[in-house]
Amino acid sequence: MRVLIAAGAATLLTLTLSGCSQDRQDADDDRGTTDVVASTDVWGSVASAVAGDHANVSSIITGTVADPHSFEASPAEAAQISDASLVVFNGGGYDHWIENVLANAPDVPTVDAFSLLATPQQPANEHVFYDLATVKAVAGSIAEKLGTSDPAHAGDYTANAERFGEELDTIATAQRAVGQSHPGASVVSTEPVAHYALVNAGIADKTPPSFANAVEEGDDPSPADVAAMLDLIDAREVSAVVVNTQTESPVTQRIADAAQQASLPVISVTETLPDGMDFVEWQRSTVGEFQAQLDRAPSPSR
Fold first, then answer.
1. pLDDT given at position 32
2. Pairing assessment for the beta strands 186-189 and 204-205 based on DSSP bridges
3. How far is CA 188 from the centre of its chain?
4. 3-state helix vs strand vs coil in the chain, percent to 5
5. Which residues contact 71 (CB under 8 A, 6 or more apart)?
6. Cα–Cα distance between 266 and 238 in angstroms, integer?
7. What pLDDT shows up at residue 277?
8. Under 8 Å between Cβ of 187 and 241
9. CA Rg value for the chain
10. pLDDT attached to residue 13
C-alpha cells in the first residue's frame, strides 16, 4: 500500500511540476524574443507600460544615483543595446553614450524621444521626459514599432499606449491646475530639468539665461551668474527654488542654502525614477511636490 501511495504521490508531483513548467513556458512563449532596452528607467517604464507582458524590458540606468549626462556604457551594456529588438532613448545629446553605441549598430530599431518633440527650442532643452506630450508620442511610437515586429499583439500595444496617454493627460491637467492656483508664481532652477513641466503649468522660470546655459553645456556657472541667482533668492523675487538632486555641487548647495535662509521653499526634482515608482507615479509625485511647496511660498517681493 505504501509503495502504491508513494508511486501515486510521485506521479502527482511529476504532473504538478510539468504543469508549472508548462505555465512558465507559456509565459516565456508569450514574451517571445522581444527585448526592449531603454537608456534610463524613465524610458524603460514608458516602454513597460506599452509592452505589457509581451516583451522583456530592461533599463541601463536605474535609480537616482547616477547622472545620465556623464554615464558611460560598459562593454556588456553596449552588447545588450546592440542585440536589442528595440532601443528607447532620450536623444538630443542627453544620453550620448547610447547614441555612440547605436552608431555602430545601425540596424537596431529605435525610438528617439527628442526627435518627437513637437516644438524644438533654441537653446534646446533635452529633458523631454518632463514634456508629457512628447512622452505620449514616444508611447505611440513604441506601440507602432512593437506592433510591426510582433503583429500578433499589435492591438494590445496600441491599447496600452492609449491608456498610458490618458493617464498623462490627467497629469498634464494637474500641472496646469498648479499654475492656475498660484497665479504669478515663479522659480529659479539649478538645472532646467523640469522646464517643460513649468511651461505647461504657466510658472515662470527666472533663472538667468547665462546660468542656465552654462549648466546645460556642462560648465560651472561664472561667479557673476551665481551672484545673479543669489540676488533673486535673497530679494525673494521668486516663489521657490527648483533643485535637481542628482547633480549636486558646491554651487547647487549654496543656492539651496540661500533659499533656506530666505525662507523660500525648495522643490526637489530628479531625472530618473525614485525607488518603487513607475513613470506615472513619479510625475504625479512631482506635481504634488510643486503644489505643496508653492502652497507655502511667500509672496514675491516684486
1. 56
2. parallel
3. 21
4. 60, 10, 30
5. 60, 61, 95, 97
6. 11
7. 96
8. yes
9. 24
10. 33
For the chain of 302 residues, list the mean pLDDT of each consecutive stretch of 10: 37 38 40 85 98 97 81 94 97 94 96 91 85 98 97 97 98 98 96 95 95 84 96 97 90 95 96 95 98 87 54
- Specify whether the CB–CB gap between 258 and 234 falls below 8 A: yes
Residues recorded for the chain: 302
Q: Which of 122, 118, 120, 81 is nearest to 102 (CA)?
A: 81
Contacts of 72 (CB under 8 A, 6+ apart): 97
Rounded alpha-carbon distances, angstroms, from residue 35 to 29, 47, 89, 232, 255: 13, 11, 14, 48, 43
Q: What ranges in 95-131 are assigned the alpha helix state H? A: 96-103
Residue 262: the pLDDT is 96
pLDDT at 70: 80
**Rounded Cα–Cα distance for residues 113 and 60 (Å):** 16
